[in-house]
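pasting for ref
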Amino acid sequence: MVLKVKGPFKKAAKEDHMTNLEFDHTVKRYIGMLYRIAFNYLKSKEDSEDAVQNTFIRLFRYGKNFKSEEHLKAWLIRVTINESKRILSSNRKHSAIDIEKVANELYVDEIKKRDFSMELMKLNPVYSTTLYLYYYEGYKTEEIASILSKTTAAVNLILSRARKQLKELLQEDYDE
């Protein structure tokens, strides 16, 4: 995926602004994770790329430093989710997709880790994103609650329901 922002990155000479090198490092570090999160919502390569690109544009324009690397990561995840929701609401033209084709395109390396990645994509985006953050990114429920602006109890409930739905989907495939 290529970040398509026209023109050179020229920053104001402010101390509280991210440098070009820091911005490049941040893009390289988080682009894959943000793409997978966006894809959980959008189920479209092009729309996911747009959501991630918009996230990085917002980061570039943000103009403030973050308290920590975790604060930056949480901000990026939150913005990616919001961008994905914005694209979904403005793009109600989504048609049925071939889930196997999409999974092979997106999760080639992830499929090696887990056989249920295609099933994960069948879940509600809130469920799949929460499971992704918990299992793939290693966040604790309290951290996910902060990122998603929910209570810890709500995240625990979402995780419980998501696991139950995933188990049912996996059982259906097993029974076939």
